[in-house]
Predict the structure.
Amino acid sequence: MNNLLQLLAQTAARFPDKTAVACREEAYTFQECLSLAARLGKSLSRALSEKGIRGKNHPIPVFVNRDAGTVIAFLAVLFTGNMYVALDPEMPADKLAAILSELSLPGGADGDIPAPAALSSGAFPETLGQAGFDGVCLSLADADAESLSVPDTPADAPVYMVYTSGSTGHPKGVVKSHGAVLAFVRNFVSCFGMKPEEIIGNQTPLFFDASAKDLALMLYTGATLEILPSELFILPVTLIRYMNEKKVTTICWVPSALAVVTQLNTFKEVLPETLKRVFFVGEVFPIKQLRKWMETLPELEYINLYGSTEQSGICCFARLTPADLEAETLPVGRPMTGNTVLLRGENGWITEPGVTGEIMTASEALAIGYFKDPEKTAAAFPVLPLPDGTPCRFLKTGDLARYDEEGRLHFVSRSDTQIKHMGRRIELGEIEAIAAKLPEIARCCCLYNTRKKQIILFAERVPGCETTGRELRTALKSKLAEYMVPAKVEVVEPLPQNANGKIHRQALKERFFSE
Amino acid sequence: MDELMDILMDLDPDIDYENETRLIDGKVLDSFKIVSLVAQIADNFDIEISPKYLVPENFNSVRAMWAMIQKIQEEEE
């Protein structure tokens, strides 16, 4: 077993007629997934050869819709031996153009070949033309009559790439291998068990890396992936009713989505009837909301997962008990099977409780690296000696943590200005870099108000500029993904400086974020 | 109503709250904003918004939100 399609073929042989992925009325069995993806893969391979594309392991963009067909489009790319790049169709045209230009393939007569093809389960974004895309657009309806056979893609070949926020203002692609996903899912199932009769209720968008876990679990265990319509999360009473109707047993959501349910007091109106396990990942769960879940539904399992986009799935977990609600912070826990997770301080590995260090992880599930960026890859994945002296490739997570008395890790803070906002990973530096390109802005600084959960941009305008903060914010809307748009742009002139002449972030925090 | 407008302006100052009557149906407010909005309404007005109120009709316009707040305040008294 080397790749995800061999895994799908195996699962389809065991459960051909079982539902693999569903969304509302739309559903595909494992056999249908396999055969439709093989046919769409054939159409893609024809399109690529017509464009003169040779070789494998190329990035192929897939525009993600909230439907089951998107999963077929991902799998179709894998049939051609290439990797899929899940893209949010609503991203601003500028960002899409930057990504597409990076996705050009090497080897044309005059240099690079622009992105030759893109897939979608249905419609394509209108911004595609603006972004200068000139390739073939294939949707499910374009599936060929002929099929590709399951390829023998090796475990170390790339399977997918996911874009994450980059502090330079340019999105950063993280490339994962088939082997990394397989290693993760094997370890996860050996740790938690998961039966084919489980129904996984997906919350995270399929262009968001957290959703890859749901997908891998479906492929590996034969469980059904039920994609929950995103608008139901606005009014969670309907969401819980829908989950009961679909008999969802397991969820792995970002805490923000779980918190919505309790913040809106949903359980006073309706309770989950089939749910057994609640995993959460991606950010810190506010204890107040978790308490409401655990006290209302004490028979459920609650598991805090910790991972990073730079690896497949997760590396640490903590099964939570009511006692954990009494602590100041929730534990991210202990390493999952197959993972080495260590804390690194200035003088080497930290083993004693209470001392803060950076989380370093090592496992077969680590990502291949950043797309077309060997420098960043080398910096994030250093080779370091293990405590016994053996050299090992690690991921430097940038997350600071400490051990508690029981030896469980607790997240402390970031070592940089990366934040988690509504479960999404955001580099405040990316917002700053993009805002600084506006002609009105002389200098700016982006901060996160953790209490109000708001991104605030502090801006100093160029001399004589009268543009208001509100107008600046409007201008940013077309440049940034919606979840990255600051809640407010505060014009502060001049911006406070520290002794080194740098913007005094702490002074701004004290002035604007104190209660 | 000023306090409610302050919360809304804080959430997104670019929305024409005075005239917008399809804040939910038109997907003008997304789920993240709704959570923040409901939490802030609950905090600022010191009320508990029962889930039975969480229907599009109560959030499609500022007027509807204000009517809902007043109704809950009366119920809680």
